[in-house]
Design brief:
Distance between the termini: 41 Å
Helix content: 25-40%
Strand content: 15-25%
Number of helices: 7
Bound molecules: 6-chloroguanine
Largest sheet: 5 strands, parallel
């Protein structure tokens, strides 16, 4: 998978060199390049924003640097790449979105700052490629960078080969629409708290049944809306 990121803070993405995704990059499974939007300006101050038409607070990102940067990445015609635009006004990012992004051979992320990017950038690239404005959740971040980092981590670990044991991907929160069950390791007693006996019984059927009950109980208590539309039994 190839990932291009356009941002005014390319150095922000140096943390991708470490941890699990750093290894995936060393192995050539994922190639990530962060581009500096200001490299596509032509004025002395490397200006990327201007005041909004119609008035209002804040600044809007100018379309010209975005057009030059994105053309440099995808060419000047139609592209098979998917352009992801992080925005609190986008569709919500879920585990299903992460699975879809993980299937894409080429992702381009356009990180806006200020009050967002001139709408014509999305309108134009929609005529040449698939564009998805995506929100991390119902709260406001100062820019798309942190959101893109989360999306890359969630999608990147689903790319085949990135997570060593693929089995560890299936029993996680959200993979089956439920929250995950609680986990325990040694010692069997810690500060008077015991590991549930069933987990030490060696009875695999009972363990599986207990874990599923825990998933349902936890989901009902913390995220009841995740159970809507599921078979009550
Ligand atoms: Cl994707 N971007 C920004 N700037 N704020 C957000 C967001 C994204 N998702 C939630 N808040």
């Amino acid at each position: 998978m190839r990932i291009d990121i356009v941002t005014i803070f390319p150095e922000f993405f140096s943390v991708l060199d470490i941890s699990l995704l750093g290894k995936a990059r060393e192995q050539g499974l994922i190639e990530v390049v962060a581009h500096d939007l200001r490299d596509f300006t032509h004025d002395r101050h490397r200006t990327v924003d201007d005041t909004p038409y119609g008035g209002g607070a804040g600044m809007v990102m100018k379309p010209e640097p975005w057009g030059e940067a994105l053309d440099a990445i995808v060419g000047d015609g139609a592209s098979d790449a998917l352009l992801v635009v992080p925005s609190p006004a986008g569709e919500p990012f879920t585990q299903a979105t992460a699975r879809e992004l993980a299937q894409e051979p080429h992702l381009v992320f356009a990180c806006g700052r200020y009050e967002g990017i001139d709408q014509r950038v999305v309108d134009h690239y929609e005529t040449r490629m698939r564009v998805r404005p995506i929100s991390l959740g119902d709260y406001v971040l100062n820019g798309g960078e942190v959101a893109v980092m989360a999306m890359i981590e969630a999608a990147g670990r689903l790319v085949p080969g990135v997570v060593g044991n693929p089995e560890s991907l299936v029993e996680e929160s959200h993979e089956d629409g439920l929250l995950e069950y609680p986990s325990y390791t040694k010692p069997p007693v810690w500060r008077d708290l015991e590991v549930p006996a069933v987990l030490r019984s060696g009875h695999h059927g009972k363990v599986a049944e207990w874990r599923h009950e825990q998933q349902l109980e936890r989901t009902r208590r913390v995220r009841p809306e995740l159970l809507d539309g599921r078979d009550a039994s």
